[in-house]
Design a protein that fits this description.
288 residues, alpha/beta, Rossmann fold, two-stranded parallel ribbon, 9 helices, globular
């Protein structure tokens, strides 16, 4: 199956290319495709002639989005809406990646796909608006919400913790925000399987896909530091002690039952995937 991936440099886009297997994955980013200026989308889709499309491009700078609202909206709402329109016109399966930050974190239980969104920041609001726009234009599209994505490469929380931990005796990390850390290569495998199912007639809509198990940012930092053989002590601190430009939700655990029950998609417990990621980075069990 030929799959057009929108975005070429992000963590998930790179993972999709590496996990392609028998699929032909064609990752296209700027300048060929720019969701902030999507006028050439139809031409590129026509040239590639894919069997399915996965949108792995997004504006993800959560704090910066508070001051760059229009830029965030272009990449997270209007651009994906234009892509949804093209996919619908060509009857192509479309998968779009969204986020746990569409929720406010006050639900007290893992969020199901049917729960109402209530973002706390511009990033989350533009992603939620993008979901609505996509499904309004292309009801057969599948929007995959995931959370706390990291990989062996790129800029992400795990790599930041290892870099800082190699130079410091202790780090302060927020311990009252809870979610489901998700490793990019496992997520990519799930997306490829979902693309196959969409092409075979599986329903679209909203779907939650993430590694299983709960974690705070402190839990993830401690596991990464220990897994890399570092001795850095992690001090847990409340969100109030680490003010940021954008508000963060406190508990955005995603309910994963629909993915398992209806699509047969399950990802490992997050510590298992983290260990595999550290091995891929070449730092497992020794000093980074």
């Amino acid at each position: 199956m030929k799959i057009l991936v929108i975005g070429s440099t992000g963590q998930v886009a790179r993972a999709l290319a590496r996990q392609a297997g028998a699929h032909e994955v064609i990752a296209v980013g700027r300048p060929q495709i720019d969701l902030a200026n999507p006028t050439g989308l139809a031409d590129v889709v026509g040239q590639v002639a894919p069997d399915a499309i996965i949108n792995a491009a997004a504006y993800t700078a959560v704090d910066q989005a508070e001051d760059e609202i229009e830029a965030a909206r272009a990449l997270n709402e209007t651009g994906p809406a234009a892509l949804a329109r093209v996919a619908e016109a060509r009857r192509l399966p479309l998968l779009h990646i969204s986020t746990d930050y569409v929720f406010n974190g006050l639900g007290g239980a893992p969020y199901r796909e049917t729960d109402e969104t209530a973002p706390l920041n511009v990033y989350g609001q533009t992603k939620a608006d993008g979901e609505t726009a996509i499904l309004g234009l292309n009801p057969s599209a599948l929007i995959v919400r995931t959370s706390w994505v990291y990989a062996a490469e790129g800029n992400n929380f795990v790599r930041t913790m290892l870099r800082l931990g190699a130079d410091r005796d202790q780090l302060n990390v927020v311990d009252d925000q809870i979610g489901r850390p998700t490793e990019a290569h496992g997520l990519a495998n799930a997306l490829l399987r979902l693309a196959e199912q969409l092409r075979s007639g599986a329903p679209g809509g909203l779907l939650h896909v993430a590694n299983s198990g709960d974690a705070s940012w402190r839990d993830l930092a401690e596991a990464a530091i220990a897994g890399a053989g570092l001795s850095t002590h992690i001090n847990g601190i409340p969100t109030s002690a680490y003010p940021t430009r954008a508000r963060r939700p406190g508990d955005t655990r995603l309910d994963l039952s629909r993915a398992a029950d209806e699509y047969g998609i399950t990802l490992p417990e997050w510590r298992e995937s983290l260990e595999a990621c550290l091995e891929m980075m070449g730092v497992s069990g020794r000093r980074a």
